[in-house]
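Hello,

I think I submitted the beta-D-galactofuranose job twice by accident. Can you confirm which output corresponds to this input? Input:
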Amino acid sequence: MKKYVPLLPLLLACLLLCACGGPAPVQEPEARDLAVVGFSQVGAESDWRNANTRSMQQALSAANGYRLIFDDAQQKQDRQITAIRNFINLGVDYIVLAPNTETGWDTVLAEARAAGIPVILVDRMIEVEDTDLFTCWIGSDFRKEGDTAVRWLEEHYGDAPLRIVHLQGNIGSSAQIGRTEGLDAGLARHPAWQLVFRGSGDFTQAKGQEVMEALIRDHTDFNVIYCENDNMAYGVIDALKMAGLRPGEDAAIISFDANSTALRMILDGTISLDVECNPLHGPRVLSIIEQLQRGETPPKFTYVEETSFDAGGLTEEIIGVRGY
Ligand code: GZL
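Support: Only one job matched these inputs. Its output is below.
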């Protein structure tokens, strides 16, 4: 951590004290040297993302010894690259990056390394030639999340003729890639499962609704809707209801993230399954930075423990204590 000690007040204080012969003053707490962290966040596209941002802001607080410089990239990689360059020019102590998509990071991360600034990746993964371009990564196993959803479909529908609408997240993001791979593996195992639509809803509620409204207008025949996050599921559910269709009855809704709002939709039968993707990375990143502050080496890759929820066993009490 770069040290900044305000020399002039210290010098004046020492001169004064030399004259008085007393002990040197303790620096005021507010002058305490805060570690500066630049955080490039994907955006504010979903409840998950906002919970992730809040978690990071609460953890990397001044009370914990940090000054957080936050940038919302509005789901655009070029804005993230600009933010990282700004952090480098500011001479931050650490960079935290939640990458929107997997590729295109080699150059800017090489610039951060040249500046001697550790880069911590959170949430989604990146593809780089040299994994030494980042210090460590913490996030989810998205393929495992997709496999969990497909296993649930297999347990509940087996080889029944499924007609699946697939709403993907941001194309090229790890979350989209992994959750799609899981569904593709299920489709390959079950010839009776038919993919009737695949397209991106950008992880947003508005786009999810727009896509579903168009499919309903086109009289698409479906009985399962596989939404790669809760906010797209909310949009899908609104579109179904506006068309007089019954989510959870006319079509099973599969979703990801497990926000409390979505979990309550499991209790009322609207959503059939929600696969958890835990956004509360703040304490995890704080622990990693504190290890680095102590000169320790955190694990290169840390996967967050996650589960899934359906109507079996889920209660309001479980939902109420989940934190997002
Ligand atoms: C998953 C995260 C995804 C969430 C969406 O870790 O990257 O992005 O599933 C969010 O809700 O927009």
